[in-house]
From TrEMBL:
Transmembrane segments: 30-49, 196-222, 243-264, 276-297, 304-324, 361-381
Gene Ontology MF: a single term: ABC-type transporter activity
Residues annotated as domain ABC-2 type transporter transmembrane: 32-380
Stretches assigned to coiled coil: none
Membrane topology: Multi-pass membrane protein
Annotated protein name in UniProt: ABC transporter permease
Compartment(s): Cell membrane
Organism: Candidatus Cryptobacteroides excrementavium
């Protein structure tokens, strides 16, 4: 067969696989819900939930069993912070817990009886805080306010102790704070939760919806003894044809998630559109290969919902949006390299929030390229294996009717 004829046949087979995969996707209502309803709605839901980004004057209940000058000074400073408001003074924890159950407060600050005595006797004084975890913003506010006041109190206590020892003025200040510093928080000075949470969640939506949609198709095919791979067509034709169908769908979803949603909710958009698009294309390619590889292991349609509950929070935190990668245990650092979302989220945050260019995110881009190559090879082997073990002969690339 001449090269021209082979090329024509290859192109015809590829187009047949491509169009049949699209028909398979659009004929499955469950996959359509995951791809389009979840892909379009989840970013909006996240943006609406965390749209404010910052909560101020969170009401808290104060339980002051110490009733001392030190505890009262601590409470005044807490009430003066922008994060929380001392809404109630309670006589005991029972009353404070009841207020929290009634949703009148979102946190409790507790001072034990020996708080003043511990400070005077140069022991460690303890202040306990309890937060309403119905929203992470309540926990953040309470913890940040308590930490700031605690650091300020420690500064005053140390200065007072040096003064008692006869050390005053600049000498005492240098001992308390040997290296003066100013707080300068770039990119998110207001500690808005949506600014550092949403970019990671948006990138994760692309990977998770694609993987779950493919897995549903794979599970359905195995349950009904149907095939998604044509035995008469090459693995390369099948792989590139199926992959192109998902790539085409997710180009539009990816632009919506990475450019339109941040604009809707006023997130920082400091990255250049061309750089973000380049990252997006590489990320989608890695996700397609990743999903083609691992979806071939799914044997039941319902498995997708179990994976959703287990994998989504894990993948989200492995992006490092809330905990630096340098603090990851070795196992979790290596485990995070399995998922394309790990590098895509970091690159997208660097671009959109910090204004980094492609050269500045070269590490993430290279990692995504390596993942795309490795998962493409593994997907090719999985495609060959699926083609060879297909239970029924067929004449097309799409699902066959159930076996009698």
């Amino acid at each position: 067969m001449r090269f021209k004829d082979r090329s024509r046949k290859w192109g015809k087979d590829w187009y047949n696989v491509f169009t049949t995969e699209l028909k398979t996707i659009f004929s499955d209502s469950g996959v359509m819900i995951i791809f389009f309803l979840a892909g379009l709605a989840y970013p909006l839901i996240y943006g609406i939930i965390y749209g404010g980004g910052v909560v101020e004057d969170t009401p808290v209940a104060i339980v002051d069993n110490s009733c001392s000058p030190s505890s009262r000074r601590f409470i005044r400073k807490l009430d003066a912070t922008a994060e929380i408001r001392a809404a109630y003074r309670c006589t005991g924890m029972e009353e404070a817990e009841r207020l929290m159950q009634q949703r009148k407060v979102n946190g409790i600050v507790f001072f034990p009886e020996d708080y003043e005595d511990a400070i005077v006797s140069r022991r460690q004084g303890t202040v306990s805080v309890y937060a309403d975890m119905s929203s992470f913003l309540y926990y953040k506010n309470l913890l940040m306010a308590a930490n700031r006041v605690m650091l300020d109190e420690m500064h005053d206590i140390q200065t007072s102790r040096y003064s008692e020892a006869g050390i005053t003025g600049q000498t005492a200040s240098r001992l308390v704070q040997a290296i003066p510093y100013d707080e300068n928080i770039r990119y998110n000075p207001g500690f808005a939760y949506n600014v550092f949470f949403l970019p990671a969640a948006l990138m994760l939506v692309i990977q998770q919806t694609m993987f779950y949609g493919m897995s549903m198709l794979s599970g359905t095919a195995w349950e009904n003894r149907r095939r998604l791979v044509n035995k008469d067509k090459g693995a390369a034709v099948t792989l590139t044809g199926r992959g192109a169908a998902y790539f085409l769908i997710y180009i539009g979803l990816g632009v919506y998630v990475s450019m339109l949603v941040p604009a809707i909710f006023g997130l920082p958009q400091n990255g250049r559109p061309g750089d973000i698009l380049a990252l997006l294309l590489l990320y989608i390619a890695a996700c397609v290969a990743f999903s083609l590889t691992f979806s071939s292991l799914i044997r039941h349609r319902e498995t997708v919902f179990v994976l959703f509950l287990f994998l989504s929070p894990v993948c989200l935190f492995l992006t490092g949006f809330s905990w630096p990668e340098s603090a990851f245990p070795q196992f979790w650092r290596l485990f995070s390299y399995i998922f394309p979302s790990t590098f895509a989220a970091r690159g997208f945050i660097n671009m959109n929030s910090a204004g980094c260019t492609l050269s500045m995110t070269a590490v993430q881009m290279k990692a995504l390229a390596i993942q795309a190559v490795i998962y493409s090879i593994s997907a090719w082997y999985c495609t060959r294996a699926a083609r060879d073990r297909a239970p029924l002969p067929d004449t097309g690339t799409g699902p066959l009717p159930p076996k009698d």
